[in-house]
Amino acid sequence: MPPFDRVVELHGTTVLRVCRALLDPTDADDAWSETFLAALVAWPDLPSDVNVEAWLVTVARRKALDVIRARSRRPQPVEHLPEPAADGESSAAFDEVLARDDALLRAVRSLPEGQRDSVVLHHLAGLSHLEVAELTGRSHAACRRSAADGVAALRHVLGERDEKGSTPTLPTRPTGSTGSTGSTGSTAIRPEAPRPAAPRRTRPREGARP
Amino acid sequence: MNDTAPDVDTAVQHRLVAATDTEPGPGLDAHLDLLRGRLADQAAVVGTVDVFWRTVPSPVGSLLLCATDVGLVRVAFEVEDHDAVLDRVAAQVGSRVLRSGRQLDEVAVEIDQYFAGRRRDFDLVLDRRLSRGFQRTVLEHLPEIPYGETASYARVATASGSPRAVRAVGTACATNPLPVVVPCHRVVRSDGTPGRYRGGESAKAVLLGLESQLSAGARS
């Protein structure tokens, strides 16, 4: 097997995304570590044809679900949402960004399990529906449907929020292309923002050796 | 199937990446570095690591340092291609390879001291599993050559008990898995020219220059 470190380099970002989508930052860090610790132990005996990224994401999802289940058995702390400041433009804008991100993640976490899996594993981590089906034990068709339903539900939540602003709705889903051109027409999508690199290749090797 | 799934909703992906604060950039890199360091420390406690590695800068370029739970197992020059070296170490020693600055701190400090002229002998535990037989015999004799001095391949062959194995001594030195620390750079041709070296002849000249300068300075 190649050096395990290369796996951390290649897939560390994707695993962190999955963990952070499902968990608060501190819990996400712990789930990230547990995922790679478990993977490290299993690494030498792993079949060479295994899809490493899907395998890691499977472990990360399971670790995250363990944390969520443990949490749900305990009393929940009262949630405090960041309130946009009454005045002071920059701080108000900053608070709004925080609130918006928070709202999106809360919306993801409150989706039915199938939709949540499809949104996080397919739309965020970039796994195919088939890979999601394999690792969640659902049918291919169900995963495809959940992915669409989950995104529709998120758009609904986000669309409602955006109605307060100048842009009424989120753009429709780009058809037949993974490019960012489909996102024109909405300030919510921040079309000027750089498109995140495909999760599989987010960390170039040269950054790894200080 | 291994490419990004074609029907990923990139707009939603964008927002999820932003919401999880995992956009590519220095912030993410720093956090992943932190997580990797923590992972290495946790794995060290559990004892599930075959090889720890890190790099250190030096006057002869970046040096790759690899250690097992026994000790330092490999030092490699940039010209050897660190990635390729790590691949071979993983195949020879074990594939549970992790980067860790902290686990190799002591080694890095001694290497630094050596290049700063504040250290003449290394006080490190070595894992010699990557050298065998005659090569190992030769390499074990090398620390007998004092800092700042050189010995010919022929002399080392004699010291190793095989006076006629001059070429084999050359090969043993040129494939030393622990260069710098095991001083194969002090073995030179009979005519005084540096001869073959894993880090290239110029790196060998730099090391010899450093040592002769500092030992001469100490004598005067």
Report mean pLDDT of chain A, rounded to a whole number: 75
* Rg of chain A computed from alpha carbons, rounded to a whole number of angstroms: 19 Å
Query: Percent helix among the residues of chain A?
Result: 55-70%
Q: Count of helices of chain B?
A: 8
- DSSP summary, beta strand count of chain A: 0
Order of strands, widest sheet of chain B: 3-2-1-4
Topology:
The complex is a heterodimer of chains A (210) and B (220).
Chain A: H1 4-22, H2 25-42, H3 52-72, H4 89-109, H5 113-124, H6 129-136, H7 140-162
Chain B: H1 10-19, H2 26-46, E1 51-56, E2 63-67, E3 72-77, H3 82-92, E4 97-99, H4 105-115, H5 133-141, E5 151-152, H6 153-159, H7 166-174, E6 187-188, H8 201-219
Parallel strand pairs in B: 1-4, 5-6
Antiparallel strand pairs in B: 1-2, 2-3
Helix pairs in contact in B: 5-7, 6-7
Keywords:
heterodimer; A: 210 residues; mainly alpha; 7 helices; 58% helix; disordered C terminus; B: 220 residues; alpha/beta; two-stranded parallel ribbon; 8 helices
